[in-house]
Amino acid sequence: MKRHLHYEAAFEDYLGRRAVPYVPVDETRKVIFSGSKIKSFDFLVYPAENCHWIVDVKGRRFPYFTDNGRRTARYWENWVTNDDVTGLADWQAVFGSDFEARFVFAYLLQGPADRWPTGRPHGYLGSLYAFLTVTLDDYRRHCRRRSTRWGTVTVPRRVFQDIAHPVGSFCA
User: Fold this and answer.
1) Helix (H, G, I), strand (E, B), or coil: what is residue 69?
2) Average pLDDT over residues 12-31
3) Residue 163 and which of 13, 57, 107, 154 are 20 to 30 A apart at CA?
């Protein structure tokens, strides 16, 4: 895990404050599997009995403001790279059926609070965050190409709102 990134650090703080067992991944140790590099994930999380997650944290601002001269607010940004999807799928295969690969979208909350995702925001170093999770299987089922040039995919906003759930709803 890149501890210098506030999104991952905020998520780790969230887990720690709720006494959710987890193991952070040291991204400085590159893993070679089957002769090719697999993109690292960020955490192994154990939110409930018989529940094990392989987590890749994706930090986004909520809303994200585009600087196109009009300062347009974009909500529910959830794009990931093709490598993110492939890497998580590879790890899912390595860990087996006892683990579930998931993206956790760590949203740095800004703008009007009535537009924020549901759930209680998590305070970390003076900022507020919301953590939503979606299974890799659901993400793959609904994603579409966002950019061929950048190798990214995304899930349409309304669909994402249906398949993403607050991390706290899984942490008893």
Assistant:
1) coil
2) 86
3) 13
